[in-house]
Structures are given as C-alpha cells and as structure tokens.
Description:
Blueprint: H1 59-73, H2 81-105, H3 118-132, H4 144-155
Helix pairs in contact: 1-2, 1-3, 2-3, 3-4
Amino acid sequence: MDFIHHILDIWPEPREAAPRFINESWLIDSTVDIVPDKRTPPEAEEDNIRIYVPLDLNKKAILRRLDEIIEQYGDATEENEMEYSIAVERLFMQVEVYDQYWYVRHLPSDREAQRHSEKCVSLVKEIIGRLENIVDIDSEYFPFDVIRDLKKEYLGMEAD
C-alpha cells in the first residue's frame, strides 16, 4: 500500500466547522478507476464546473465505512481479495487525509519520531483489529499485506 500526502487547505482555523477543500475527486468517487500519478488541476474545459462533495472524515465515519466494506465482501477469498483490497485502499486515502489534517493542526514536539497524528494512530489500531477479524478462506495477500503495511507505517512495527 502506498501512503500519499494530499494537498490540503487547513488554515486558517475557523471558529465553526467549515469545509476543507481537496482537489482529488477520485478520493470519494468510486466510479473513477484510475488514480492520477500527478496532482493536476481539473481540465480547463470551457464547460467545466467544479463541485465540492462533502465527505465527513471522523473516526466514527471511517470505521462505519470499513464495516460496510467488510459486510459487503465478507470472508477474504481468492475471488474477492482484489476488489476487497481496492475498497480498503480507497478508504485509506481518506484516513491519510484525516491523519495529515490532525498532524498539521497539532504538530508533535518530536516530529522526527512521530510521523502520524495521535488521533490517526488510535484509528489505525481499531482498523487493524477489524481487518484481523476478517476470516481468510483462501486469499493470498489480503488482508495480510494491508495489516503488515499499516503496522509498519503507523505503529512502527516490523513484519512478523
């Protein structure tokens, strides 16, 4: 799993909850199959209208989305592991935005040692717990590779 830093507009902090803008529609649109290699502005077409779709990123919403993915696919099998993995990786694009926002808003004192926000580390621990409970029927890599990558990236743990 590749971990990406996104281009976020998080300053200034308003008193009331306000939308944060991110120019990566593939992050929320499951009909977009290709994730662009470069972050480019939308096509400069004469008839282009940019619509911002609200996406609530909080622990409860992210865990609910993960639970929906797990309910949709059920046990991990050779037949569903690719689609399962893609759905979970798309969710982790949202987790990375959540992490990046909280990290920047509450910079840790030891930034070299702490690469992720405390809120996200807590969230990832719960996600790993849910992924570890997926019954493996005959899948080759999912959810094992995802769990290994998450533990390494967010918890600083090497593979068993």
